[in-house]
Amino acid sequence: MKTRSPIPFQLDRSEVVPLYLQISRRLSDAVCAGYYKVNEALPSERTLAETLSVSRATARNALEHLLSVGMIHRVRGSGNYIAPIQMPLSRLSGFSEDLTKRGYQPSSRWLSRILAEPRVDEQMTLGLSPGAKVARLERIRMHDAVAVSYEMSVVPARYIPNPLEIESSMYQYLAIGGNRPVRALQHFKAVNASADVAEKLGVAPHQALFFIRRVGFLQSGAAVELTSSYCLSEYFDFVAEMTRDGEPDLPLHGEDNE
């Protein structure tokens, strides 16, 4: 059986691009192509240096660059690993935007894009008048052709009168019409996949998932979206930064804590 090469590329020394950036870029390309998987270890600094005939410093700089953009995370004493998709909780952005910024190729497999009557809970959450319709969008979110989440979005029809016009990013579509959300409330919880959701994501029933419920609001305060997502936990890493406004600095190491 043929063993997979730890490094699927060679450097082009005729390029004017610094070698460390070449290595960083080509490792990134390999990640995006699925050669390296989420949570898989990258080749070590030593392996990169020896295989590509570069200095250890050059290999180190390449890995540091990938670390700085969030594509890898470092485990002390173990190595560098492909990082899950980070979703900062303090910044309102869409799935496509988050993945594109990291160099991935986001895509969707649409299950349904229709206009429909809202359910009672949807009508209340979105503040809809009786008789108002909604755009109901249901899709599988893909990260480099791998299904990573099942998403259902409900938007008042006045903001999306023709759901079939949305090809990839719903937020981009809303922004073009001046209706992009400026803030959102998100609720997170751990759930087990129902038989229906498991089938859609291609996983076993009862597999642990992240469930996210998001309500997005316009500058006017009107609710513009209600989105529910079931996410495969191995592909997502939710990050929150917390501060204490008006409080004294936290004690230094060795001082008493509250």
UniProtKB/TrEMBL annotation:
Keywords: DNA-binding, Transcription, Transcription regulation
InterPro entries from the UniProt entry: Bact_HTH_transcr_reg, Chorismate_lyase_/UTRA_dom_sf, Tscrpt_reg_HTH_GntR, UTRA, WH-like_DNA-bd_sf, WH_DNA-bd_sf
Domain HTH gntR-type: 17-85
Molecular-function GO term, any one: DNA binding
Any one biological process term the GO annotation gives: negative regulation of DNA-templated transcription
Xref: SMART domains: HTH_GNTR, UTRA
Protein name: GntR family transcriptional regulator
Protein species of origin: Massilia eurypsychrophila
